[in-house]
């Protein structure tokens, strides 16, 4: 009898230890996914506050300087769908590690760049690494967590995505002022190496799907996404480029309907909530890029702030954004996902309108009110959009769905920049530009809010 009791105690102890190990492994996976997602977004915005120093050291003209960002954005957007699907086929672990290696090498090479060609080329390589990394980070979370734990993990993911853009501005401004803009890229190398070592030991070796790569779909998806991003932001012939892109998108959709393991499974778009979340994410990101892009310029042009002072001025917004995004899961539990999403969209609309109203003042505190409001709304909307974008998705296509969600977000940024550039091209005063950009952003966000109310809310009720 005593032996049986001892055996039962040992069994329970072993079960408890195994549960503890599982929890510890989940926490490490969560950390890896969040840091990976953070790095990709960080390097989108880290160049904004250091562009003046960068241009001076590398003797970059305005066109070359714009391509430092465009090259990263093009490959980031173009390889996103492929990156998610490759993770589904070959396993999350292998693609996660590969993407970190590509991103780390690209970052070190960018930091060491001595001319425009090497800078732009390795920014493109960096973008490829980030494009594979981003969807696999999100898919890692959906594969590892379920139920409320998944909602919380996605909330963390959304928080680092949102905060990454703001922190990139802060870090970029700090390094550009006190050390060198190169340091912001150099630090990615050691971080990526440490993550590769940890991932190799902790991440499970996932079961690989049978089948071959859909090469036609892969090539079409890269060309379609890259061409439309280029047509919207960078092409000297925007209309022909966009027309070619539309043809490529049509060809991609037709090809995906005829293969057994498509790069972009069309079943992802069959769910009304998911489809609406992708479009809403696109509109929301288009509006958000206006805030991230023009607010630092406004603070430096209208207030006369240095890059570092601009970074400090945006720091309260970055901190608040992260805190609210982390707490968003509790609000979702109390109400529901769509209600919190509506609240986030509404707060962003009001905040952007407020920022437009104070564009012709030189009062930082009035600007701060709008940036803090934007932080709250952005955090709430972003966290809940990510959840809706992966609602009721099969694990076998979770990577592809994550790629679609991230592609919509990335494409929204390119679309937003094109809209803002076209709408403000005739303006020369930074206050007028900022005013116009904030109003356009409010309009785009309101359009997304309409989609949430008319499509996502009814879908959640069913």
UniProtKB/TrEMBL annotation:
It is found in: Cell membrane. It comes from Lentilactobacillus fungorum. It is a multi-pass membrane protein. Residues 29-460 form the Major facilitator superfamily (MFS) profile domain. The chain crosses the membrane at residues 28-52, 64-83, 95-114, 120-142, 154-177, 183-203, 215-231, 237-254, 275-294, 306-326, 338-358, 364-390, 411-431, 437-457. This is MFS transporter. The keyword Transport applies. Keywords: Cell membrane, Membrane, Transmembrane, Transmembrane helix, Transport. It holds the Pfam family MFS_1. Gene3D superfamilies: MFS general substrate transporter like domains (1.20.1250.20), Multidrug resistance protein D (1.20.1720.10).
């Amino acid at each position: 009898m005593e032996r049986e009791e001892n055996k039962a105690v040992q069994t329970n102890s072993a079960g408890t230890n195994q549960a503890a190990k599982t929890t510890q492994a989940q926490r490490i996976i969560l950390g890896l996914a969040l840091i990976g997602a953070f790095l990709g977004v960080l390097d989108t915005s880290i160049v904004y506050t250091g562009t003046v120093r960068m241009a001076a050291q590398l003797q970059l003209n305005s066109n070359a300087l714009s391509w430092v960002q465009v090259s990263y954005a093009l490959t980031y957007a173009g390889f996103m769908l492929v990156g998610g699907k490759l993770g589904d086929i070959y396993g999350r672990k292998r693609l996660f590690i590969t993407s970190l290696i590509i991103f780390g090498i690209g970052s070190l090479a960018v930091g060491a760049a001595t001319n425009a060609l090497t800078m732009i080329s390795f920014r493109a390589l960096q973008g490829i690494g980030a494009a594979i990394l981003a969807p696999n980070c999100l898919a890692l979370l959906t594969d590892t967590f379920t139920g409320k734990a998944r909602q919380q993990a996605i909330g963390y993911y959304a928080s680092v995505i949102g905060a990454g853009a703001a922190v990139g501005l802060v870090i970029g401004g700090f390094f550009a002022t006190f050390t060198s803009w190169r340091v912001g890229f150099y630090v990615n190398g050691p971080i990526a190496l440490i993550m590769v070592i940890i991932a190799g030991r902790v991440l499970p070796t996932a079961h690989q799907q049978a089948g071959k790569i859909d090469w036609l779909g892969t090539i079409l998806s890269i060309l379609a996404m890259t061409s439309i991003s280029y047509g919207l932001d960078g092409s000297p012939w925007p209309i022909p480029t966009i027309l070619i892109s539309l043809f490529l998108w049509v060809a991609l959709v037709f090809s995906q309907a005829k293969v057994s393991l498509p790069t972009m499974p069309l079943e992802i778009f069959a769910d009304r909530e998911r489809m609406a979340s992708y479009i809403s994410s696109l509109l929301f990101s288009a509006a958000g890029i206006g805030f991230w892009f023009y607010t630092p310029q406004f603070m430096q042009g209208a207030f006369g702030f240095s890059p570092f002072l601009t970074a400090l001025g945006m720091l309260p917004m970055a901190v608040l954004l992260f805190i609210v995004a982390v707490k968003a899961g509790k609000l979702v539990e109390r109400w529901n996902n769509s209600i919190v999403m509506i609240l986030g969209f509404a707060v962003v609309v009001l905040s952007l309108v407020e920022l437009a109203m104070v564009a012709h003042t030189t009062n930082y505190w009035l600007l701060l009110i709008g940036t803090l409001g934007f932080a709250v709304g952005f955090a709430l909307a972003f966290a809940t959009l990510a959840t809706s974008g992966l609602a009721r998705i099969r694990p076998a296509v979770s990577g592809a769905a994550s790629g679609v969600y991230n592609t919509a977000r990335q494409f929204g940024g390119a679309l937003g920049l094109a809209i803002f550039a076209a709408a403000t091209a005739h303006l020369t005063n930074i206050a007028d530009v900022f005013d116009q950009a904030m109003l356009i952003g409010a309009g785009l966000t309101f359009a997304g809010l309409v989609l949430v109310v008319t499509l996502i809310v009814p879908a959640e009720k069913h």
